[in-house]
Specification:
Length: 186
């Protein structure tokens, strides 16, 4: 698929983004954070309804506690790489975005998520999209976290995004082009 395509900053950033699961403990700058929030702000939404609310947590002690609560709920030995004791659900990232809404709006959240991830890649930051923390956030045990993140308990957690300086350089994951068909004439 990368054979004969136009290359520019945007296209190449999309191709070069990887999920990052090892981060430097160094916090991102406020200017970098504001850049990502601006990218999130400019995500499209259905009828411009802007249903997705963003909370950014940069408190490492709280993220450690979140990981404890997550593992106490889902188990410390479940066979998912996000859940090993050595690999916390937030992947030791110093910044976590949490996306919430008062309605089901996964498409809108997905578009905002990709904006954040591509903007992060374009300024040299790594990201990991994290759905698994929803097991805690959308359970009754997650209500305390909704309080701490200043959202009503009846809002849905949609997705989280870990953000930080990359401490790994993983190879690309395979992609299956057989899913795509171009129909030029029926
Ligand atoms: C909706 C969604 C949920 C994901 N949830 C998790 C997660 O809970 N934990 C995790 O470590 N990675 C998670 N990922 C990252 C995927 O595993 C990753 O995007 C996929 O393996 C492809 O790798 P790449 O992003 O490097 O291309 C998620 C990605 C998406 C799009």
């Amino acid at each position: 698929m990368n054979k004969d395509i136009i290359h520019n900053k945007v296209v190449d950033t999309i191709i070069e983004r990887r999920t990052i699961r090892e981060y430097s403990p160094k916090q991102i700058t406020d200017k970098e954070l504001d850049t990502l929030l601006n990218a999130a702000l400019w995500a499209p939404s259905g009828r411009n309804s802007q249903p997705v609310h963003v909370r950014v947590l940069q408190d490492t002690d709280a993220l450690i506690l979140l990981n404890e609560d997550f593992k106490n709920l889902v188990g410390w030995d479940t066979p998912a790489y996000t859940r090993y004791e050595t690999n916390p659900v937030y992947h030791n990232a110093p910044t976590m975005f949490f996306l919430f809404s008062d309605r089901e709006c996964h498409m809108d959240a997905g578009l905002m998520t990709e904006n954040i991830c591509i903007a992060a890649e374009s300024i040299g930051l790594g990201t990991c999209i994290i759905a698994s923390v929803g097991a805690l956030m959308n359970a009754p045990e997650g209500n305390i976290w909704k309080q701490r993140l200043n959202v009503p308990e009846d809002w849905y957690f949609l997705i989280a995004i870990a953000v930080g300086y990359k401490a790994e350089d993983p190879p690309p994951k395979p992609r299956d082009e057989s899913r795509f068909q171009v129909i030029k004439k029926i």
